[in-house]
Amino acid sequence: MLLALVPLLLLGLRPLPAHAASDPVWGLMASSCSASDIAANKAVGVSIVEVEAYWDRYLPTAAGVENTDYVTDLRNRVTACLDAGLRVVVGTGTQYPPSWVRGLAGAELVDQRGKNPDTGAIDTVFSASVRNAEADYLTRLVDDLPASRLDGFRVGTSAAGEVGFPGPNDSGDGFLQSWWAYGADAQQGTGIAAGTPTTPMPGWIPGQSTWNGTTVTAAMARNWFTWYERSLMYAIKGQVDALRAAGYSGLVHIPSPGKGVLPADLTTATNALLNGAGDRDGSLGRGLNYVDQFPVLGGNVGGVVVDLTGVDDATAVTARAASPAQDMCTAGDADTSTDPATPVQSWSNLRFARAQAARAGLPAVGENPGPPAAQTGGTSDSDSEAAQVRHSPAYARGCSLAGFFLAFEGVLDDPSSGLTRQDYANAVTGAAG
C-alpha cells in the first residue's frame, strides 16, 4: 500500500519551481546542540541543524538493550536545540550498525565475485534480518525523541548514510565494477526483506552474454539494472514505513550523492550488457539512477525530501570553468535534462540531480561535501572548504533548494580551519569577508 502523502508545507519545506522567490533556510550539519553552539548559531542566523544519532551507541550490545545514558544525552541535545528555537533534522545513523547486527543472517553485502565491501557497509537492502533490526531501531528513535517537533529524519542505505550501494573499488582489491546483489537473499530469496523482489535473472553476472542458455539482450540487461537500482527504493520505503508505523508523520530526508547515471550512459551500459562501459563515475554499481528513482519516490513514498549532497563538489568546479559555465540551475533544466541533445555530461552533479527532483515533483535541500581532506565527499579537485562556504549559498538559491546545510558545525568551531560562523553568514548575505 502506498503511503498517504504528508503535506509538504509541513515545517516550511515545499516543492519549489526553478527560481522561487523564497530563500532557503540556512543550517549546519552535525550539530552538537551544546549551549555554546546553540548561542553561536542563533547569533548568525542559522535556523536549522542536523543532529546525528549512532545506531551502535544506541543499541551497542544486543537487540532491545538501549544504552540509556546515550539515549538520554541525545534526547537532551535535540530538545535543547528545539527549545532554543532551532529546527532539527535527526540523522538516524543507520550507517553505524552495532557489531551484533553485523552478525545477523544476510548482513554481509556480497558482490558477483563473492567479495565483501571494505567500508563496513552491511546489507540494509536485501537482508530481512538487518531490515527488521533497523526498523526496531527507527521505532525507538521515534519513541525516545521529541519526534513530532522535528523537521525530519534522515535515512540512507550506504556506509556514508546516503542512498546507494558501495562504490567502485569498495571491495578493496582494485576491482571497479562490483554489483552488490549476490547474497542468498537477493539471488535465491533466502531471508529476503519483505516486499523486496529477488533478481529477475538468478545467477547472471553483468557482462555475461548468455543466461540459462539464452542470449542476453540489452533489454534484459536494462531490466536487471532496473531491479538492482529500484531495490534501493524498496529499502528506503522500508525505513520510511518503519518511521510511519511508529507514529512519525513528518518529513524524511533522503541524502542523494552525485548525479546518478546519465540516460545516454545507461544506454551505452546496457547495450554492453553492463560490462563496465558507460560507467562515468561509479553510479552504475552504486545503483544510482535518479532519472528513474526520484519519480519512484515521488509516486510511492510520501513526505520525502531529497538531500542533494553535491553542492559545490568537484563537478561544480569543472562546470563553473566551462565556457559557457554549466554549474548553475536554470528554469528549463527539468524539461531538457533527459533530452539526448542536452549536454548534461558537462553539468554539475547538483544541477542534474536537482532537475530530476523537479521532474519528480520532490522538494530538495542540499549540503556541500565538506573539507576535501575529511573524506566526506570532497576530492583533491574540490573547492577548499572556504570556497565551498563562499559558493554554496548562490548554488542553493539558484537551484531553488528549500534548505542548505553547511558541512560541518565542527569546522566552524575549529580555530585551525580559518573559518567562522560569521564567514558563513557573510556568504549567505553577500557581505565581503
UniProtKB/TrEMBL annotation:
Keyword Nucleotide-binding attributed: no
InterPro entries associated with the record: GH (IPR017853)
Composition bias type Polar residues, residue spans: 335-344
UniProt entry keywords in alphabetical sequence: Signal
UniProt xrefs under Gene3D superfamilies: Glycosidases
Annotated region described as Disordered, given as residue ranges: 323-344, 362-389
Superkingdom per UniProt: Bacteria
Segment forming the signal sequence: 1-20
Protein name: Beta-galactosidase-like protein
